[in-house]
Design brief:
391 residues, alpha/beta, FAD/NAD(P)-binding domain, D-Amino Acid Oxidase, Chain A, domain 2, 10-stranded mixed β-sheet, 8 helices
């Protein structure tokens, strides 16, 4: 039986970042992914590296500040993968959020970014409003422009894994965890790969399986109690419509949510929804109501592009990401997006991650490294995690 310091279950962005961070700190690492790296949620996000302007409405200032710091770091560490992009917020006569509220939010956003180069925002003069092709001008009172960043989420995750591998992390795809036996001083992790069963002894195990996090916990012996969760599906539509140069931050005409209209490979990408799923079975797909919701919002702001039925014929692709949120009362849109790290005195060698954001995967990795160091001690570092370049 092989033995390592750390086994990570799950090859999405969080598992990848933890593998990279732990390998840089000198730990021996094995990462198990039951499918392919970045094959699920981490390839199906809104593809944004951003502070989360809307989180200001629910008072998540610490998360926004942290996210903006990570945006700054990733622009430096992954310049070929993370690119600045302008965002536009139109304010109409019937908008729920007034011009004053938007300006106040953008001012706070700028302050939380420590007034870095992307922290600037401005009001676009009305003479330039028509530069956003197709945008409804009737009733438009103001147009604000600020900055965030866009990425290819799958390529970013693959690059993080590549970097982890270069420092010795052992990464296995199509390796399904079937049992985690929690013993007094370590865990024995059993998995299937290429039709054969294998096992590895680990001083620590991190469960970063995303939507399947509690499925992994169901494989643990002795039994461990999972945190009650909800699966929240976020759907996106790629339309055969030439993209604008920036991203539109649009208030839904149906509810208080916001959606993005984004350029993606020269076409127009719309997202996202937030639909609570009853179960996770197979690959998630958009519901008819989600398609109507997104196209309804797009048609409301871009009426010259056609109605919902005609827009359906222009759908090139759809994809869904599934977020994990601890089960709580209230609308999914308003829930905190912090990563929850769960461990217990009965299973001290096992750490389970719930939730999290693409933008803050590095922060999550550093926090997990702190747990790992306190749990099994430090190692001789191979590299400075905060200086590792991605390509």
């Amino acid at each position: 039986m092989s033995a390592v310091d750390l086994v990570i279950v799950g090859g999405g962005i969080n598992g990848a970042g933890i593998a990279q961070c732990a390998a840089a700190a000198g730990y021996s690492v094995t990462l198990l992914e039951k499918g392919v790296i970045a094959g699920q949620t981490s390839a199906n996000s809104s593809k944004l590296i951003h502070g989360g302007l809307r989180y200001l409405e629910t008072g998540q200032l610490a998360l926004v500040r942290q996210s903006l710091a990570e945006r700054r770091a990733l622009l430096k560490l992954a310049p070929s993968l993370v690119n600045p992009i302008p965002f536009y917020i139109p304010v109409y006569e019937d908008s729920r959020r007034s011009s004053i509220a938007i300006r106040a939010g953008l001012s706070l956003y700028s302050m939380l970014s420590n007034f870095d180069s992307l922290g600037q925002f401005k009001s676009i003069p009305s003479v330039h409003w028509a530069k956003i092709k197709g945008l409804k001008l009737d009733g438009l009172k103001a147009l604000y422009q600020y900055w965030d960043a866009q990425t290819d989420d799958k390529r970013l995750t693959e690059s993080v894994v590549k970097n982890a591998r270069s420092m010795g992390a052992y990464v296995l795809e199509h390796a399904k965890c079937i049992q985690i036996e929690h013993q007094k001083r370590h865990c024995v992790v059993r998995y299937e790969c290429q039709g054969q069963q294998h096992e590895v002894e680990a001083l620590a195990v991190v469960n970063a399986a995303g939507p399947w996090v509690n499925d992994v916990l169901n494989c643990v012996t002795p039994v461990v109690s999972p945190v009650p969760i909800e699966w929240v599906q976020g759907s996106h539509l790629l339309l055969d419509i030439a993209a604008n140069d920036g991203i539109l931050y649009l208030e839904s005409c149906f509810d208080k949510r916001v959606v993005f209209v984004m350029p993606w490979n020269g076409k127009t990408l719309i997202g996202t929804t937030e639909v609570v799923l009853d179960e996770m079975t197979g690959r998630p797909t958009p519901t008819e109501s989600e398609v109507d919701y997104l196209l309804g919002i797009y048609g409301h702001y871009f009426p010259s592009m056609g109605d919902v039925d005609s827009l359906k014929s222009r759908i090139l692709e759809t994809f869904c990401g599934v977020r994990v949120l601890p089960k709580q009362q209230g609308n999914a849109f308003d829930r905190p997006r912090d990563t929850l790290q769960q461990t217990s005195s009965s299973h001290p060698h096992l750490l389970t991650l719930y939730g999290g954001k693409l933008t803050t995967y590095r922060t999550t990795a550093v926090e997990v490294l702190g747990w790992l160091e306190s749990h099994i001690g430090s190692r001789n570092a191979l590299a400075d995690f905060n200086q590792l370049q991605l390509d």
